[in-house]
Design brief:
This protein is mainly alpha-helical and 56 residues long. It is 71% helix and 0% strand.
């Protein structure tokens, strides 16, 4: 890994110009919608329910 690539790993969003930031956001984007939050909420509710149902 070159020095410039290593520096890119530690740069903050404020240090990156708008065009480069937009390009990174497009490259990193995943369009899952709200499903991860909904599944996480359902799993959390299930864990809470199980903990109360088995411990009384």
């Amino acid at each position: 890994m070159s020095q410039d690539e290593d520096h890119d790993l530690t740069r903050q969003d404020e240090d990156i110009d708008a065009a480069h930031f937009t390009a990174e956001e497009i490259g990193d984007s995943h369009h899952f919608g709200n499903w991860p939050e909904l599944i996480g909420l359902a799993v959390a509710a299930a864990v809470i329910w199980y903990s109360f149902s088995f411990t009384g």
